[in-house]
From TrEMBL:
Coiled coil feature spans: none
Family statement: Belongs to the trans-sulfuration enzymes family.
EC number(s) recorded for this UniProt protein: 4.4.1.1, 4.4.1.2
Any one of the GO CC terms: cytoplasm
Cofactor(s) of this protein: pyridoxal 5'-phosphate
UniProt keyword Lyase, yes or no: yes
Protein name: Cystathionine gamma-lyase/homocysteine desulfhydrase
PANTHER family assigned: CYSTATHIONINE GAMMA-LYASE (PTHR11808:SF15), TRANS-SULFURATION ENZYME FAMILY MEMBER (PTHR11808)
Matches recorded under CDD domains: CGS_like (cd00614)
Biological process (GO), any one: transsulfuration
GO MF annotation terms: cystathionine gamma-lyase activity; cystathionine gamma-synthase activity; homocysteine desulfhydrase activity; pyridoxal phosphate binding
Amino acid sequence: MRPKTKLIHAGIVGDPHTGAVSVPIYQVSTYEQEAVGVHKGYEYSRTGNPTRHALEEVIKELEDGVRGFAFSSGMAAIHAAMSLLKSGDHVILTDDVYGGTYRIFTKVLHRLGIESTFVDTTSLQALQQALQSNTKAIYVETPTNPLLKVTDIAAVAKWSKANELLFIVDNTFSTPYWQTPLALGADIVLHSATKYIGGHSDVVAGLAVVNSEQLGEELHFIQNAIGAVLGPMDSWLLMRGLKTLGLRMEAQERNAEQIVAFLNQHPAVSKVNYPGLSDHPQHTLASTQARGFGGMVSFDVGGSAKVDEVLSKVRYFTLAESLGAVESLISVPARMTHASIPYERRQELGITDGLIRISIGIEDAQDLIEDLTSALSESGL
Ligand SMILES: *Cc1c(COP(=O)(O)O)cnc(C)c1O
């Protein structure tokens, strides 16, 4: 099955009992047992729910994995994956990971005895230097947020295997439509499905897919034991969102291409970060590792005063956290998504006060470009 067909036909389709073309929303917590332990596969909805199961099947197939899991948020999925580790273990992470990921590692997992080191995972040398005798996992986000740095998944997978580590990839920015990390050697793929997979800014959710039955058993144990599961209605909304994922990803990338070309020649913009640009440091890798460059772009306008001016002028870019939905969003990483990262650390990473991040929607590109043209102009047109 080719990707766009997979989005429609993978997993569990419809309802065999009624012929309904859409998987029903099984709004139920418990299931009748004919005798103790004799049931039709479901006992209690924290352990398993048919609507959630249908979603877990489709994401498993889309990511080319062995078993899928749906959680109540991206952070809950990350927390579940990290619960595979124990006190005393060490994790190496990409240095400009999502702010919430940085926070759970430094403020929560740290208290539980899980150590972390943040390095530039685009450099195998940096990985090697960060390796400790208690290192158990490597956690990569690629492309990163907000600088769109690209890590070589296949190369890290090889290094990870050689060192017997668990290799986890946050695939939120690319989605399985553009990139399938398990096929490149990763062990676990995580998603904030709140973003592109949901795609309509109407649900908070997380997904995880593993590459082996054993990891599947372990993660299901954790999902059921901790209990941060996705409800049936939200599971259904994600399945609905997934059907148009291909169309949306293609449209967002076409818009991104035009907007990036516009920003790149604009005198008020000092730097544009986008993996599709030929001067992006990992452009060649991005072109081969993924099937598309995505719809996330960041650019520098010099300082916070100019940022505020742009924000006050845009009409079609909504100032909001989050990304990946049909409507274009604009944000200021230093003061929003990455505010939980200390100032000095942000400067080291290049998350400057003048950096603007845009998540490009499916509007007409010409309207978006006109919006940015007036927002960036000196005259305040
Ligand atoms: C938003 C996001 C998360 C966290 O997901 P939530 O659904 O907000 O809990 C994790 N990773 C990335 C890359 C994100 O963008």
